[in-house]
Each structure stands twice: as C-alpha cells, then as structure tokens.
C-alpha cells in the first residue's frame, strides 16, 4: 500500500483548512460579507446586495467542492481501487469549475479595485475553464500524461482566492499598500504565480509517476 508523502499531506492540510475557513467565514461569521464589501468603493454599477450575496454563496460552495474533488482525484489509492468514482468525481470537478467561473463572471464587474481587478478576474475566468476542458479532452483521447499535467494546471486555480489574499496581505505589510491597491496587484500576481507554479511542479516531476500506468490498466 502506498503511503502518502509529505507534500500530499501538506496539500491536504492546506485544502481542508482553507475549505473550513471559507465555509465558516462566509456562512457563519460574516454571512453578509460586510467586511469584504466595506472595501468596495466607487462602484460603477449598482450592487444589488441580496442577489450578489446569493451568487457569492453559490460561488463559495462550488469553489470548496472543486478544491475537495480535485484533491480527492489526485489520490493514487482512489485511482487504483475506485476508478469509476475517480471518473465521476472528475466530472464533479469540471461542473464545479464552470459554476465557480459563471458566478465569478457575475461578480467581476463589482470587484474590489474596479475595472483593473475586473479585467484580471475575466482573464482568470477564461484561463481556468480552458485548462479544465483541455484536461478533459486529453483523457478522452487517452493521453494520460497530458491529462495529468493539464489537471495540475487547472487545479492550481482552486487556490486563486487564497493567493490573492496572501499577496494582498504581503502588499499591505511589506510595501505599505492600501487594501484596494494591494488587492488589485494580488489579482494579477495570482495569475502569474498560478501559471508558473504548476509548470515548475510538472518540470520537476513531482507529480505521481505511476499515474499513467494505473490509468492504462483500466
């Protein structure tokens, strides 16, 4: 039986911790997003709070599902012993990604930082589903290694919100930026990092090397 390595355990811990934080913060501690909305000033479009909040709830829920289902599908044990579940869970991930992108598309015009941030989110809303569809096409064509690599690229964008807020915090604390400016830089910084880090992982060969063999045994 394969034991999970340190990086797998660390990734799982980060994902579980972030999912719990997102659910508790958005549904229990601040269900009306008052703290986050306090930074949205000078909006060019009127924000209809009840609609925005409902969209935000759907967005957060499916972002958490995408992160959880993606994490689960990187499990070699699931791939080896529960192949149908792996496949079904993959479709759950794809649907979740598109629902996250759809709701993000609604919220993008109201993004903190105005048009600059909105353009960044619109770019993310193109890149993430494109990578996800590419991964789906690759597995349909039985290109296992390419499927794995595109899934790594796609899954990285599950951490968009986390990276944006980390970069925003770094901008505030390290460079004295105000929240709105730091957030805007955080949006674009997250795009760069989430494109770069998967490539480093793929090139370093840290992705499971036995994935292709396991798929071919289906």
List keywords for this structure.
mainly alpha, 218 residues
Uncertain runs are 206-218
The first-to-last residue Cα distance is 19 Å
Shape call: globular
Q: What is the strand content?
A: under 5%
Q: Taking Cα atoms only, what radius of gyration do you get, to the nearest Å?
A: 18 Å
User: Helix proportion of residues, in percent?
Assistant: over 70%
The overall pLDDT, averaged over residues, is: 90
- Compute the number of strand runs: 0
- Which structural class fits the helix and strand makeup? mainly alpha
Q: How many distinct helices?
A: 10
Topology as a string of helices (H) and strands (E): HHHHHHHHHH
Task: Characterize the main sheet.
Answer: none
How would you explain this protein's 3D organization?
The chain contains ten helices and no strands. The protein is mostly helical and 218 residues long.
Outline:
This protein is mainly α and 218 residues long. It has ten helices and no strands.
Architecture blueprint of SSEs:
Elements (H helix, E strand, L loop, with lengths): L5 H24 L4 H4 L11 H25 L2 H6 L1 H25 L7 H26 L3 H13 L3 H16 L3 H26 L6 H6 L2
């Amino acid at each position: 039986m394969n034991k999970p390595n340190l990086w797998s355990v660390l990734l799982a811990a980060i994902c579980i911790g972030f999912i719990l934080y997102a659910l508790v913060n958005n549904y229990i501690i601040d269900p009306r997003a008052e703290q986050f909305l306090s930074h949205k000033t000078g909006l060019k479009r009127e924000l209809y709070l009840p609609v925005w909040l409902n969209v935000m709830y759907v967005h957060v829920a499916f972002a958490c599902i995408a992160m959880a289902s993606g994490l689960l599908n990187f499990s070699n044990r699931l791939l080896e012993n529960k192949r149908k579940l792996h496949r079904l869970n993959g479709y759950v991930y794809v649907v979740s990604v598109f629902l996250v992108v759809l709701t993000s598309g609604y919220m993008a015009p109201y993004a903190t930082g105005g048009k600059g941030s909105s353009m960044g989110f619109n770019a993310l809303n193109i890149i993430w589903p494109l990578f996800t569809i590419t991964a789906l096409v690759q597995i349909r064509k039985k290109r296992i290694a390419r499927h794995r690599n595109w899934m790594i690229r796609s899954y990285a964008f599950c951490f968009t919100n986390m990276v944006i807020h980390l970069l925003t915090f770094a901008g505030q604390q390290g460079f004295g930026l105000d929240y709105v400016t730091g957030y805007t830089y955080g949006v674009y910084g997250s795009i760069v990092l989430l494109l770069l880090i998967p490539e480093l992982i793929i090139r370093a060969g840290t992705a499971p090397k036995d994935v292709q063999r396991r798929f071919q045994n289906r």
